[in-house]
C-alpha cells in the first residue's frame, strides 16, 4: 500500500468527514473501518443542529437523509404535568446511515480511498498494524469512537459517565391510537415528546411521530447508577404500546461517553476526533455535529501546515469551553429527581430558551437574568443555590479553555486547573 498522507481510523460520520475534507485539500487519504463500510458509524436517527453542517462546510441534509425539520420539544418532568416547550432550536432529524454514506461517497469523489473490514490492532507510534497488513502514514487520525483503536492514550470514562442509548424507527400500525396517545399528553402530532428522569436524572424517552406512519423513539440512561439501560427502557415502552406501535424498521444502540472533551486531542503525529476525542455535548449525549466540525478544523490545520497540534489548540479554544460547561451542567443534573426538575421548571430556573440553547449546542446565556418566580422560589432555594454554583463554574471553565496552551508541555498543568474547578466542591 502507498504511504498515505493521512490515515483515518473509522469511517463513521466523523472519519468520513475527515476523509472528505482532507481529500478536498489535496491530501492523499486512506480511511479504514473494522466494519463493512455500509455499516460503519451510527445506524440510527440523530438530531443535529443545522448550523453545525454550515460550520463543518457540508451541505445541510435533504430528504431522504433529512427525516424531520426542527419540531417543538415538550420536555416533561417525569410523566408531567410540569413541562416546558422548547421551540427555538434548529435540530434536524438525520438518517445517519445516509449522512455517513453521502460523506463517504463525496470523500471518494474527492480522491480518498476507503476500505471496510480492516481492523486496526496496534500502533507503535510509527506503524499501524491492521488486519490488512502494516500501514505507515504522515498523519494518523483516530475517528474510531468510544472503545475504538485508542491511538492516543486518553483516560477512559468511568462507568457512571457512560450513557446507554438506543434509537429505533418503528411503523405506526394504528394512526388514530397514536394521535390519541400524543393528544392525551397535550402534544401536537408531529411535535417531540420527551419524558425526562424516569430512570435517573440523566434519562430520557424521546418520541416523535411522522405523518408517514413512523415513530422515532430514543432512550438513554446511565445503568451504572442502578437504572434500566436505554435499550431496555425502549423495549419496555414498545411492549406497553403494542396496540399502536408496530415492527422495528431500523435503529441501534451504543454507549455514549459523557464528560468534558479529552484534554489532549493530539499527540505526536496523531489527532483524535469525534467520540474518540470525547467531543460530545454531554448534557444530551450529542456528538455528530462536534465530530463534523472537528473534522473540518483538522483538515484546515493540516492544509495550513499547522499539524495536528494546530487543530487541537483551535478546537479547544473555540469549542472546548462550551462542551466542558455543558458537562458541568450534566453533572449537576444527573442526580436530580423528577420532583427537582418539576420544581426547577415551576421556578423558571429551567426554561424553554435555555433548553433551546442546549439543543442548538451554543452557549447557555439567558436572554435576561433568570429571576425565579415567586411561586417556585421557596421550594427551589436549595436547587437554585447548587445551580448557581454550577453556572459560576460554567463561566469560569469557558475562560480556562480560551487559554488552552499552545505549548504541549503546559497541557498537564492546564488540565489540573480544569480538574480542580470541575471537581465537586471546586470553585
Ligand atoms: C442511540 C443513540 C442516539 C444518539 N443520538 C444522538 C443525537 O441525536 N445527536 C447527536 O449529535 N449524537 C447522538 N448520538 C451520538 C452519536 O451517534 C455519536 O456521537 C456519533 O455517531 C459519533 O461518530 P464518530 O464517527 O465519532 O464515531 P462512531 O460513529 O462510533 O464511528 C466509529 C467507527 O470506527 C470504527 N472502529 C472502531 N474501532 C476500530 C478499529 N480498531 N479499527 C477500525 N475501525 C474501528 C467503528 O466500526 C465505527 O464505524 C447518539 C448515540 C446513540 C447510541
Q: Which terms summarize this structure?
A:
single chain; 427 residues; alpha/beta; FAD/NAD(P)-binding domain; D-Amino Acid Oxidase, Chain A, domain 2; 3 domains; seven-stranded mixed beta sheet; 19 strands; binds flavin-adenine dinucleotide
Describe this structure in words.
The chain is of the alpha/beta class and 427 residues long. It has three domains: 6-65 and 96-156 and 264-321, FAD/NAD(P)-binding domain, CATH 3.50.50; 159-257, D-Amino Acid Oxidase, subunit A, domain 2 (D-Amino Acid Oxidase, Chain A, domain 2, 2-Layer Sandwich), CATH 3.30.9; 326-422, no CATH class. 37% of the residues lie in helices and 23% in strands. It contains eleven helices and 19 strands. It has helices spanning 13-24, 50-55, 96-109, 175-184, 230-240, 288-303, 307-333, 338-347, 352-360, 374-402, 411-422, and strands at residues 6-9, 29-32, 45-49, 66-68, 73-77, 83-86, 91-95, 113-115, 120-123, 127-130, 133-136, 139-142, 162-172, 192-196, 204-210, 214-221, 245-257, 266-267, 270-272. The strands form four sheets. Strands 6-5-14-15-16-13-17 form a seven-stranded mixed sheet, with helices on both faces. Helix 1 (13-24) runs parallel beside helix 6. The longest helix is centred in the last third of the chain and has 29 residues, at 374-402. The mean pLDDT is 93. Bound molecules: flavin-adenine dinucleotide. Flavin-adenine dinucleotide (FAD) is lined by residues 9-15, 32-35, 40-42, 44, 46-48, 119-120, 143-145, 148-149, 165-167, 218, 253-254, 256, 274-275, 280, 285-289, 291. The site of flavin-adenine dinucleotide has 41 residues, from helix 1, strand 3, strand 13, strand 17 and helix 6.
